[in-house]
Amino acid sequence: MLLRRCQHLFVELDQEPRFVFGTLLTGGDGLDRTPRWLAYAAHLDEPVPVDLDQLALLQAVSRDDWAEAGALHQAHGEAAVQALLAQGLLVSDADAHAGWRDRDQATRDIAWWTPALMAQAHGGWRDLDIQARGEQGLMLSSQQMVDAFGAAPEPDYRRAPEATPLALPVAEASDFDALLQRRRTCRNFDANATLAQDDFSTMLRRVWGALGTRTLAPGAVAVKKTSPAGGGLHAVEAYVLVRRVEGLAPGLYHYLSMRHALEPLQALSPQDAAALAHRFVAGQDWFEDVPVMVVMTARFDRLFWKYRRHAKAWRVVHLDVGHLSQTMYLSATERGLGCFVTAAINDRAVDEALRLRPLREAAIALVGFGPRAAEMRTMELDQFDPVELDREA
Ligand SMILES: Cc1cc2nc3c(=O)[nH]c(=O)nc-3n(C[C@H](O)[C@H](O)[C@H](O)COP(=O)(O)O)c2cc1C
Questions:
Q1: Which of 1, 133, 186, 312 is the most buried (most CB within 10 A)?
Q2: Which atom of ligand 1 is the closest one to the Cα of 322?
Q3: Domain boundary among 81, 109, 137
Q4: CB of 344 closer than 6 A to ligand 1?
């Protein structure tokens, strides 16, 4: 068996109190506050505790060249080497470790910026259920937050309170202003309504469809859409979870932005589609009646092809998703549809359902759109106190 160190490794000196039952028996409060080293490997989902001897061993093993396990056993002791292998911090060529090895390979093939890779690898959720947490009383209301943390930093943020603000003219409102005014996040969808094919198709084409391309060099094609995208790359893909769309069977689809067509990925029963919708939005039950959800994923291979080890690239692809989301909001508003965006998603569950290649492509955010319910059960910002312009302050 051949071994080498994983490609990207961060170490944190962690001192978050952690529950340890044993301390209760010795008169403690159940919390262990001793500092410990945590190793974050980019190909693992969770950090693993390590000691200084293990860190020294990791330092001694090559990141790039494979070494015979026997030679490492002789040099460092079999138990110590096998412990790091079991934790995933050493990678092997054995079939049993193919999953970790493939993930580690993705971090070698793509010119990731290491801190972004760490955040991407370790920031995921798989089974968070906000509805269940609410039922357990674990979600704080606004009042409870103010009670616990004090008032939020004020919305009317002044940087030079001693200076008199320079009043700006207010232009006459246009139809576009009216559209912007109507935009809002819908949390009440009609659970029985089917989305018309025309609405569905128009939304996909307007928001995620390519308007055209320009070849900048053979092998380097810029894409034009209705939203801007860093580097003209449009390294964001759209995957559709269809529940009730006219003329389409429930299931998972991939939108082909160049062809304005759908690739069927997996057919689903209505019950399975409903369960997946609940899981995708991390149990935010106010969203799950929507007839269609669109998951936006980042293609890191395309992104880091241009922005190699670039400190801003990961930020750029999140901004791209935000722009697409706003175009989606405006388009849905114009068509009289309710819509939402959420980043509170079980992204690991989404990635697995879509069979995305780990660390090469991953879900960033999810949007949904469809007919609104007649009755509003969950709060929306449909009513608010308009800002009265205070010219004197
Ligand atoms: C990046 C982003 C993430 C959001 N995530 C959630 C979410 O997880 N759950 C939710 O109910 N609303 C979510 N929203 C919607 C906001 O709560 C909403 O935009 C805000 O309350 C203002 O309301 P409005 O969109 O009607 O103006 C998100 C909005 C944005 C831009």
A1: 186
A2: 1
A3: 109
A4: yes
